[in-house]
């Protein structure tokens, strides 16, 4: 029972981290049809920024605030000055943009390694969130509960923006029918840049949050990007709510297989993805219509 | 006046014919030079060049398999690494676990890979575009994870002691790098020839039609999915051949040979070399291997330059080095 | 007048050329290829090994019998495929006389197979898996550290006879992890202990030990006995403390779990746990004091176990070269055979080799880290036991 309970919490914590990454990615994919492999690079950059800020100011909270800013900026610049012009010039198909972001992923990993070296860095857990609590008969680290909290807060916030604001409505419309939205006079380029930047900032936030738990190293983005794609596809491309449920499914699958079926731990989620793609290739949680 | 027009027209036509035959002659000369160079390589230069050439050829075979799908059929797979790995593991398991001689384990491996590819291909080809990319990636990660976890494959340590072909009946020692070089060269030529035959055949033309427009090909009555699966199987077997050679070259195979990064490197090789020709993947493999070697000698931060190099190639040399060279050297005056 | 410039240039050139000839060496430099995982989870220990290696070479003034020694470094990225490529590059392109280093046992297995086929000498610095000098033994491969069995077998016996009856073992799922912990298990169970559970995590791919630690705490064992190194060790120790297990289920390990190079990342977590180590920096032997002094002089810091392993690696090579008069024999296996005959005093104790070219461990210390009033951390001696013999398995004779 203890193992099960702890694993449920571990699974939740993993899910929330994945959700932060998947939310941005699903919007980027749904809206712009770009397979943004560089999402992992934003994760890495956010983490390293957090390390620098925490190292110089000693404050975790400042790192949390400032860390996502560089990815935000970079995301906006990347989309508006590199990806958008390339797509418009007809030079590149979606495959090319995907491969371009693939190159960016590796270039970023190499660049941070050049600047920071290959040692594993970390952000110390803030005192307020250190230690563990006794919860339902088990001892669970406070920081992991914090991660769950942040994930849920972001989920609520994003859903609010998506469902209740003009920006959200425009995004939903853009995912459904991009041409129509542009025809209606919305500055589609600005919209794309904003969404890309927001997605990148979320990935950066995930990087800062993950740092005290799992350490910061140059390859961290590369390993996490594939798992994020599993979540995005299972949830349905462009489906924000779907990616929340999908991250729960994937996170729990990971945690439970680690504890109970370690033989399948490495590939359980990929079997899940293949199953989903065979049975319901549009994702398990389709409620947004997609044309083509 | 009509005389002048006729004169002008025939002279341009003649220019065109001369240009075309010049191109053909030049290509023939280049090809012959390349062949002679390849045959004489071990004598011409130091052993390290032979080692590099072996790596280039194995990578080239891998890239050719990828290109059958990419350039030939318009399907981008990020999972061909799994077939490379399956080829290597097949020989590894056959030789070290089952104790079979190579002339049994190699064909058995290829058959098993073909059967697996048929099944996987049937599932994957139901999707297209980016979804196809993701599902091939997912399958590849599946095999990768299985290779790490299974005791049969010796987990993340991999399998060592994989034998090279026993050429003692010819009086040759497979461990000798020069002998191994010629063995790989022969296989490479056979694979290239097979690829050429496939692309030039009716089967290949239908694949090209599918690449251009799937709907039109279906409308013309072709069973599009069967052809796609067929291409998938042939590509898989080609990549498995590369995997067998790779594991014989290093006497060793481990799960890293199935990583998606490796599949990505293969796609990069195809893009560098160009998707429209048979030699494109081989050229791309050569450029890639040499660039990686050169970079790792020059700097320890090879990953950063590799990523930048990748981005530049995708942005500016989308049609590949071969195409760029062709247009640069033989552009009309 | 017109040609003064050219004339002076010619004279200078001639002078320079003569000077070159006067100081020219008789023999070309000796090249040693040093292959370590400078990138990845073992990056920090590798740098320690590199520093220790440099100290060993500096003792001889970086030359032997009048020949300069040149070290060519290569990064195997902790990956066997890359290790193989780098080995080929070192041997065929750089034309090194021998290859040294190698941390990962998996890389060691792959590269020793290659060294055997290519008849090139390979002197392993770490690569502790027993199979390397057993099943995969070769007349061209030597190891200057010790085997996993040599280090951990008697550790199992020690803990079993010091009040620990049940243990859960946790380690990375690769050759070295299995070698170390299997050796511990054998010794532990032979002395009456019981290993109630084995938990293996994917090597280099695990970031979260939550599930593993939860399973361990549920197993009912008295201790977790573990081997991890580099970044994985730091994360495990931190997460172990996060889950409140420091008192309830102590984490017992070795000098890699509690690596001195990780102390700054672990903070106060390092004070308290007992662990085993092959090297005590405060040992009062002549070899050790000389080593510590030279290391402090060169690097302005204190050496630790990784540096000591690098030192042993370099020292064994230099002693062998000295015996051979600075000339590599035509039959490279002679180099390894000469190394096999060495017996020398190293900072860790006496080093001698067995018949399969594997160095043996004289003794293993049990230590505890204490913090003094000034806040400095010191490893303090608790106990010691002897190193064990290697496992059999080599079928070749050389």
Report low-confidence residues of chain A grouped into runs of 5 or more: 288-292
Largest interface: A-B, 42 and 41 residues
The helix tally of chain A amounts to: 12
| Overall outline of chain A | globular
Task: Find the count of extended strands of chain A (DSSP E, 2+ residues).
Answer: 2
- Indicate the mean pLDDT of chain A: 84
Which consecutive residue ranges of chain C, at least 5 long each, have pLDDT under 50?
1-6, 12-24
What share of the residues of chain C lie within helices? 40-55%
Structure description:
The complex is a heterotrimer of chains A (292), B (333) and C (398). With 292 residues, chain A is mainly α. Chain A has one domain (2-219). In chain A, 74% of the residues lie in helices and 3% in strands. Chain A has a two-stranded antiparallel ribbon with strand order 1-2. In chain A, strand 1 and strand 2 form a beta hairpin. In chain A, helix 2 packs antiparallel against helix 4 and helix 2 (39-57) crosses helix 9. Chain A is globular. Chain B is mainly α. Chain B has a domain at 50-258. Chain B contains 13 helices and two strands. In chain B, helix 2 runs parallel beside helix 6 (177-200), helix 4 runs antiparallel to helix 9 and helix 10 (260-273) crosses helix 11 (280-298). The model of chain B has no long low-confidence stretch (mean pLDDT 83). With 398 residues, chain C is of the alpha/beta class. Chain C has helices at 4-23, 43-59, 80-93, 105-118, 148-160, 175-190, 210-218, 230-242, 263-266, 286-299, 305-323, 333-340; strands spanning 30-36, 63-64, 67-75, 98-101, 122-124, 141-143, 166-172, 194-201, 223-226, 251-254, 274-277, 343-346, 349-352, 363-371, 377-386. In chain C, strand 2 and strand 3 form a beta hairpin. The model of chain C is unreliable at 1-6 and 12-24 (pLDDT under 50). The chains are: A mainly alpha (292), B mainly alpha (333), C alpha/beta (398).
């Amino acid at each position: 029972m203890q193992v099960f309970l702890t694993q449920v919490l571990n699974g939740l914590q993993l899910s929330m981290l994945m959700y932060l990454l998947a939310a941005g990615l699903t919007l980027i994919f749904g809206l712009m049809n770009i397979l943004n492999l560089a999402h992992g690079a934003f994760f890495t950059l956010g983490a390293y920024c957090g390390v620098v800020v925490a190292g110089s100011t000693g404050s975790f909270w400042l790192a949390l605030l400032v860390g996502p800013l560089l990815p935000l900026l970079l995301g906006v610049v990347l989309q508006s000055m590199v990806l958008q012009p390339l797509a418009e010039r007809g030079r590149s198909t979606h495959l090319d943009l995907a491969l371009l972001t693939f190159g960016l992923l590796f270039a970023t990993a190499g660049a941070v390694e050049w600047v920071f070296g290959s040692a594993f860095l970390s952000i110390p857990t803030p005192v307020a969130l250190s230690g563990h609590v006794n919860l339902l008969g088990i001892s669970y680290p406070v920081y992991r509960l914090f991660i769950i909290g942040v994930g849920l807060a972001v989920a609520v916030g994003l859903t609010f923006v998506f469902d209740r604001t003009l920006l959200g409505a425009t995004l939903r419309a853009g995912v459904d029918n991009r041409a129509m939205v542009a025809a209606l006079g919305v500055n589609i380029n600005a919209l794309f840049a904003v969404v890309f930047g927001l997605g990148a900032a979320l990935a950066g936030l995930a990087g800062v949050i993950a740092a005290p738990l799992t350490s910061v190293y140059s390859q961290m983005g590369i390993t996490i990007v594939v798992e994020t794609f599993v979540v995005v596809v299972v949830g349905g491309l462009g489906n924000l709510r779907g990616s929340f449920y999908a991250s729960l499914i994937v996170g729990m699958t990971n945690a439970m297989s680690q504890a109970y079926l370690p033989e399948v731990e490495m590939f359980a989620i990929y079997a899940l993805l293949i199953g989903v793609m065979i049975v319901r290739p549009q994702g398990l949680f389709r409620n947004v219509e997609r044309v083509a | 006046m009509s005389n002048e027009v006729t004169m002008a027209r025939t002279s341009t036509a003649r220019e065109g014919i001369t240009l075309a035959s010049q191109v053909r002659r030049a290509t023939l000369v280049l090809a012959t030079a390349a062949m002679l160079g390849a045959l004489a390589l071990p004598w011409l230069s130091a052993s390290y060049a032979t080692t590099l050439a072996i790596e280039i050829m194995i990578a080239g075979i891998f890239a050719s398999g990828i290109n059958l799908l990419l350039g030939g059929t318009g399907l981008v797979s990020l999972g061909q690494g799994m077939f490379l790995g399956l080829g290597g593991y097949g020989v590894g398991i056959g030789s070290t676990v089952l104790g079979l001689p190579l002339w049994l384990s190699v064909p058995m491996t290829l058959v098993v890979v073909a059967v697996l590819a048929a099944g996987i291909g049937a599932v994957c080809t139901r999707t297209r575009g980016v979804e196809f990319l993701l599902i091939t990636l997912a399958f590849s990660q599946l095999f990768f994870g299985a290779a790490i976890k299974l005791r049969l494959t010796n987990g993340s340590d991999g399998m060592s002691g994989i034998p090279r072909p026993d050429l003692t009946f010819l009086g040759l020692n497979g461990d000798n790098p020069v002998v191994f070089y010629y063995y790989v060269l022969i296989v490479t030529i056979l694979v290239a020839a097979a690829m050429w035959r496939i692309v030039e055949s009716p089967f290949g033309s239908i694949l090209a039609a599918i690449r251009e427009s799937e709907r039109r090909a279906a409308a013309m009555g072709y069973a599009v999915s069967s052809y796609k699966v067929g291409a998938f199987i042939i590509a898989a077997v080609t990549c498995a051949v590369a995997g067998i050679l790779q594991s014989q070259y290093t006497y060793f195979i481990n799960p890293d040979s199935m990583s998606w990064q490796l599949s990505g490197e293969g796609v990069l090789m195809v893009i560098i070399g160009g998707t429209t020709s048979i030699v494109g993947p081989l050229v791309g493999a050569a450029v890639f291997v040499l660039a990686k070697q050169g970079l790792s000698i020059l700097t320890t931060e090879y990953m950063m330059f590799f990523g930048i190099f990748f981005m530049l190639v995708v942005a500016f040399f989308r049609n590949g080095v071969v195409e760029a060279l062709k247009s640069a050297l033989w552009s009309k005056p | 007048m017109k040609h003064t410039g050219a004339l002076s240039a010619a004279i200078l050139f001639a002078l320079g050329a003569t000077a070159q000839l006067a100081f020219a060496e008789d023999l070309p430099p000796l090249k040693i290829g040093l292959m370590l995982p400078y990138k990845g989870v073992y990056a920090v220990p590798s740098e320690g090994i590199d520093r220790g290696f440099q100290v060993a070479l500096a003792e001889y003034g970086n030359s032997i019998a009048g020949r300069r020694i040149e070290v060519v470094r290569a990064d195997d990225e902790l990956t066997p495929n890359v290790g193989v490529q780098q080995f080929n590059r070192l041997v065929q392109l750089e034309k090194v006389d021998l290859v040294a280093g190698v941390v990962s046992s998996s890389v060691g297995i792959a590269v020793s197979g290659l060294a055997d086929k290519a008849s090139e000498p390979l002197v392993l610095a770490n690569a502790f898996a027993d199979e390397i000098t057993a099943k995969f033994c070769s007349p061209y491969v030597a190891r200057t550290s010790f085997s996993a069995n040599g280090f951990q077998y008697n550790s199992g016996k020690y803990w079993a006879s010091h009040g620990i009856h049940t243990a859960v073992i946790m380690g990375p799922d690769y050759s070295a992890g299995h070698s170390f912990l299997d050796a511990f298990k054998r010794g532990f169970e032979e002395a009456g202990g019981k290993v109630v559970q084995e938990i293996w995590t994917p090597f280099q791919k695990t970031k979260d030990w939550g599930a593993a630690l939860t399973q361990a705490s549920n197993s009912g064992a008295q201790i977790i006995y573990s081997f991890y190194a580099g970044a994985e060790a730091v994360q495990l120790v931190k997460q172990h403390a996060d889950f409140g297990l420091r008192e309830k289920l102590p984490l017992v390990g070795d000098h890699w779990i509690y690596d001195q190079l990780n102390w700054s990342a672990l903070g106060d977590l390092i004070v308290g746990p007992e662990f085993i180590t092959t090297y005590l920096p405060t040992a009062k032997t002549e070899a050790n004091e000389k080593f510590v002094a030279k290391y402090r002089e060169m690097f302005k810091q204190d050496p630790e176990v990784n540096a000591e392993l690098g030192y042993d690696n370099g020292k064994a090579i230099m002693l062998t070269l000295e015996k051979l008069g600075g000339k590599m024999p035509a039959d490279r296996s002679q180099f390894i055979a000469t190394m096999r005959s060495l017996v020398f005093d190293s900072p860790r104790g006496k080093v001698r080799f067995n018949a399969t070219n594997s160095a043996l461990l004289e003794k293993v210390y049990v230590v505890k880290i204490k913090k003094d009033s000034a806040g400095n951390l010191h490893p303090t001696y608790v106990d010691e036991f002897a190193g064990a013999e290697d496992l059999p398995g080599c079928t070749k004779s050389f």
